[in-house]
Amino acid sequence: MGKQKRNKRRSNNKDHAKQGAPADATNPNGTTGPAIVQRIRHADARTRHAALCALLHTCNFASGAKCFHRSVLQAVRDSIMDVDLECALAAVAILTTTLQQEDSSSKMDPTVSAGWLVLLHGRLQSCATEVDQKDPKMSLPWLNLASCCLQCACVLVETNSLALERLVPESGLRTSELRDAFWPNVSSWLSQALQQAAGEEASVGTTEVSRVHSEHWETIAIWAARIFHSCWDDEEADGSLIQSWYRDQRQDAQATFQVLHRAAISRTHSIPVPCRLHAVGALLSVGKNPITLSSGTSFSARQEDVKFAKEDTWEPMLLDACMGVLRESLQWHESTASQLVQKLAYAHEAWKAQAQDAELEKSIISLQRRKNEPARQIARRLQQQPDNVDDSEQCEKGRGKLPVDRQDKETVYYEAEATWNQHIRGLQLALEITANLTSDAGAASYCHEDTVMTEDESSATSLDYQLTTSLLRHDVPMQLWRLLRPLTDYTLQVDSASLALVAETCGDLQSKAALCLGHVLANIPSWAPPDSLWTDLQTAVKRTTAMEGRQGLCACMVVYLRSRGYPSLQTLQPSDLQFLRSLILGHDYTPSDTVPRDAVCMMGLLLCSHQTHSAEVNEVFARTLLETNVNSGTSAILLAEILNTFMDVYGTDAHPAVFDNLNVLGFFQKSIPALKQKISIASSCSATRPEDLEVWKEAATNAARFVQYKKGYA
Known about the structure:
mainly alpha; Leucine-rich Repeat Variant; 4 domains; 34 helices; about 70% helix; SYO1-like TPR repeats domain-containing protein; unfolded protein binding; ARM-like; ARM-type_fold
């Protein structure tokens, strides 16, 4: 009887396999679809959660989008609305990690992830309902899920332009409904977070639940404000997102502006600094686009014919308040930074010592296992050893015993690392906002030094002039200059392995500060830089060890020469080129490093700005560039710059003796085929930008014409 049942069951299994899904959806084990998808869609919540945790682990140690099939991502996407909170949280974490780990080799189809915004919006709505109905302790899981959903939505709109386009109702009712519901939803979360921050500052005493509760609300405030900042600051949107929303939902838009204004200028210490800065960035992004905030008032005045009275608009006061917050964040707190660096170094050394002890313990255990010594023999050997110290004395001293409440030093180090990153995050974000503001300034309506503005013009000018005036009034350009020295000091920490993170992050800050300074030099001619700025930039380039910082500083020096000229120098001497010569010849030639290229460019700018320089100076210049190309690893970006600089200097037939004696023309004839070959190789690389290829091709074409010109001249 049992044998007949088994045969019947086998026959049914074969018939079921024949009636399954198509062959392309069948795994080698015979199941329909990927096995992980079946587990994610399983009826048991524990099975679903285990499968999602396994996927999250895989995603953390791989390039997420490259290793996940489309059906797997669809199953994870559907799990966002799972009734089990742990499953929903794991699903959101998987999608966020997948988006963050995208690169050119593992970039998924944007149409796959564009629809995630709808589910994230629905999950945020359900979280808001549950948080309102539960006490603080019971609402902690829902707050955690809401913060993760806001993070995922923010990363999604930052990395996927199609997701952002869903909020611009060009056609269709669905897009308009999503936009009209999404912005008030995010604004509501930000408003609640601000209310919680104000309430926590007034309360006395904290518990573990209240601490975790406040941490969740701080995270929610940061990500909610960042969503507005990221979406409204998107250049591709061109203001259509804000304009259409304000036109169709004026009341919701004005309420959101008020929430962001409250987040930006509030003096509540419980509001995180990144939240305030993201709110500032969002409000200033609104100012870039010409929308009407009140009757007859234009927030942005890029149109020169728009005139408004000072009493009929609120943007001058708002701009001043936002600029004040931005200026406060452009500070380097030396005492706090020094304490954090010491804490980070101590934690790293303790972690290193603990790791060495663990390795020693592992080797001892492995040695004992290889000996395979019996327990009785171990006991006899221990009895034969002299007992010099009493057992009670050993117990009193605690020798041979590990503390019960000992800390994991690795965890302590990563906590110190997170504290350091949190400390510099405010300055990093403030520099990014400043770079965005200063790069967009000065396009049309800056007041030059020789221009005198009337009272009527100064009271009814465009936002660009108001922005420039506010930057100068709050001393932002000088503060950027003041940041160079302390940041350079901290990049020197790279010699210590424990402080490599400090050097890397400070190099990034140094690069951003130099970028902002370059924007100010180029776009605000009314700002008078300090006399020592050029010397300070040289000193910073010599001292800093972070490659990113050196690149930013050299780019700033190029902008300085192009916009302001070489400071206080009547005649050019060979010693003036030694700094640039050492920068060019003493540098590694890597394709990603632009320092040698900028140094070559600076050398050309110096000689072109001083047409009467001596033959000795010209010879130093020519020999430096010729020696640079001796290196076989010279990249296309550097070789193209060398050719362009030679053509700029010798295009006017200056110093023909130096040109002929050093055989610069022969160098051109050898370098043009080499540059074309490098361009051909670079064109097959996906990392090469098309605009760079066009610049290099133009340099090769101009160099060939230059050779013909010189031959004809001879």
